[in-house]
Amino acid sequence: MKTNPTTVQRYNPEHIAKPVGSYSHVTKISRNAELYVFSGQIGIDSNNVIPDDFNQQVTNTMNNIVDLLSSQNLTPDHVVKINIWATEEINWDHFYGIWNQVFGPTPPSMTVAYISGLGLPELKIELDVWAAG
Fold it and tell me: What would you give as a GO molecular function for this chain, any one (predicted)?
């Protein structure tokens, strides 16, 4: 399913400071769209292994998000907001390399928080995803 251009619209108003990262300040969802709220996605792989490496957890998490969206006949274009929870400093070069491949030139809205722990001690990052379609 491809997003109808009016289902999800993203903006960075000109009179507001530019985003400090790869995200959109405003994401608008049309009135007729269905809202999807997904549980936080983690860096577990297809063998149910959570790697020790932070960047590998980032890669796995993004792959899991794409697969989860696909399971609902959605694409990354349907994502309206992602909250990022990390227990370690994010390697933004690695993160944005994958993020930009997945979301392209008009990424969703984003919030980032560094926290002391997640649901399992081996987790280093979790992404909370909202989508509309």
Answer: hydrolase activity
